[in-house]
Automatic annotation (TrEMBL):
It comes from Pichia sorbitophila (strain ATCC MYA-4447 / BCRC 22081 / CBS 7064 / NBRC 10061 / NRRL Y-12695). Keywords: Cytoplasm, Endoplasmic reticulum, GTP-binding, Hydrolase, Nucleotide-binding, Ribonucleoprotein, RNA-binding, Signal recognition particle. Belongs to the GTP-binding SRP family. SRP54 subfamily. This is Signal recognition particle 54 kDa protein. Fungal signal recognition particle consists of a 7S RNA molecule (scR1) and at least six protein subunits: srp72, srp68, srp54, sec65, srp21 and srp14.
Length: 468
């Protein structure tokens, strides 16, 4: 079963609970467990998750509670347990800009005297088997950090696979990223060393070193990883793992852990037909955080991995926080409407104008199907249609909001409940059906309630599976 199906199975299991009687709850737990097993999650992990859910139900849910209350609590329990499954509780190291690490020493009269760089470049070494997606992920990662203002260079230390350097070079040129590699040098340790030295001297913030893979987990590969690692002393070693390999992921991750002691994981190919469960089990077995997931072959198809966002999306409840962070990466700090949205969000508000701003912003970002899954209530629709239809649906939503008056846009949406004739007017203006305007209003309400729960969360009242 692929991940998209896992999401709909989990949603189905949760929504099958009506009265919340024991039989319904038992069936729900059973359905959740078999869905996870069919996605290749390790059986021991599933058993532990089942026991935890049962235990929490016993201690947190009162038999006399009403069905809707029970449902909410059940959803929260399942949400938390699924987060626990993919959360390693480890924080990977975060790169910093070298210019931010500069220390200014003060002269006798307090004036700035000299600027000294106190820190080194953040070196990321990528390891993993051939075909896992290392070279692709190297450029994706470089572009991700470049967009955030980091000075970043790529080093191809894969001298094993013919064409590896050309592949990295082409990707790097397309994305405007400096690169280093050699057509003649056959020693990967030397290439890695020379590339890292070159970019270090040029004061690059981040240096990404792509290493070679093999078809199999061979000792020669592991020896090579150890030697490169000793030579370049990476700040962070990331294992790139194919998310679709199923149960084999666990032994692969363990073998790499022993040789290269990676501290973070990128799961690739989580789009389309990935089962994902095997890789998730591998993460649990090595207690290593997934930092990113690859969601396509395009250079922009990389998402920051956050357990709660991942589970939110899986359960189709949207993830407004990721949506906003995603938009932030556009470097819109100077954009007035974006600033206003951020202020509103911090206050737990989300107006129709905020919704309009966000929609307009992420039309610039693509791929839309990924982004749509962050909007509550849209993931179900979007999983059934393609990129083109997603794009036209989003454009439609923008036309609808463009047809609203200033007063309506700046409102929390209640104005449409009090004066429903406004809905008819907007529909006419946008050239769409009334029900489509109602859908936009419903989504904005969901996002607004999520903004409110995010504010509560930030105020330290614990996580909430808001919007379910
Ligand atoms: P390497 O041998 O580990 O460097 O793997 P490559 O980067 O060459 O990738 C192997 C294949 O996987 C290529 O065809 C990539 O386009 C593809 N690939 C990599 N990441 C993803 C991903 O996230 N999704 C999809 N669908 N394909 C990917």
């Amino acid at each position: 079963m692929v991940l998209a199906d896992l999401g709909s199975r989990l949603r189905g299991a949760l929504s099958s609970v009506e009265s919340g009687d024991e039989k319904e709850i038992q069936n729900m737990v059973k359905d959740i467990c078999s869905a996870l097993l069919e996605t290749d999650v390790n059986i021991k992990l599933v058993a532990r998750l089942r026991d935890n859910i049962k235990e929490k139900i016993k201690t947190q849910i009162n038999d006399n509670e009403g069905g809707s209350n029970k449902r909410k609590k059940l959803q929260k329990i399942v949400f938390d347990e699924l987060c626990g499954l993919v959360d390693s509780h480890e924080e990977p190291p975060k790169p910093k800009k070298l210019s931010h690490k500069q220390q200014t020493t003060r002269g006798a009269k307090g004036g700035a005297k000299a600027t000294k760089v106190t820190s080194d470049s953040h070196i990321i070494m990528l390891v993993g088997l051939q075909g896992a997606g290392k070279t692709t992920s190297a450029t994706k990662l470089a572009l991700y950090y470049k967009k955030r203002g980091f000075k970043i260079g790529l080093v191809c230390a894969d001298t094993f696979r013919a064409g590896a350097f050309d592949q990295l070079k082409q990707n790097a040129i397309k994305s405007g990223i400096p690169y280093y590699g050699s057509y003649v040098e056959t020693d990967p340790v030397k290439v890695a060393h020379d590339g890292v030295q070159k970019f270090k001297q040029e004061k690059f913030d981040i240096i990404i070193v792509d290493t070679s893979g093999r078809h199999k987990q061979e000792q020669s590969l592991f020896n090579e990883m150890i030697q490169i690692s000793k030579m370049i002393q990476p700040t962070q070693t990331i294992m790139v793992m194919d998310g679709s390999i199923g149960q084999a992921a666990e032994s692969q991750a363990k073998a790499f852990k022993e040789s290269s002691d990676f501290g973070s994981i990128i799961l690739t190919k989580m789009d389309g037909h990935a089962k994902g469960g095997g890789a998730i089990s591998a993460v649990a077995a090595t207690r290593t955080p997934i930092v990113f997931i690859g969601t396509g072959e395009h250079v922009g198809d990389l998402e920051v991995f956050k357990p709660s966002s991942f589970v939110s999306k899986l359960l189709g409840i949207g993830d407004i926080q990721s949506l906003i962070e995603h938009v932030q990466s556009l470097n819109l700090q100077d954009d007035e409407s974006h600033k206003k949205t951020m202020e509103n969000f911090k206050e737990g508000k989300f107006t129709l104008r905020d919704f309009q701003t966000q929609m307009n912003n992420f039309m610039k970002m693509g791929p839309l199907t990924n982004i749509a899954s962050m909007i509550p209530g849209m993931s179900n629709i979007m999983s059934q249609v393609g990129e083109e239809e997603t794009s036209s649906k989003i454009k439609n939503m923008i036309y609808i909001m463009d047809s609203m008056t200033t007063k309506e846009l700046d409102s929390d949406g209640r104005i449409f409940i009090d004066e429903p004739e406004r809905i008819v007017r907007v529909a006419r203006g946008a050239g769409c059906a009334v029900v489509e305007v109602e859908m936009v209003l419903q989504q904005q309400r969901l996002m607004s309630s999520m903004a409110a729960s995010a504010k509560t969360m930030n105020a330290g009242q614990g996580p909430q599976a808001g919007g379910m």
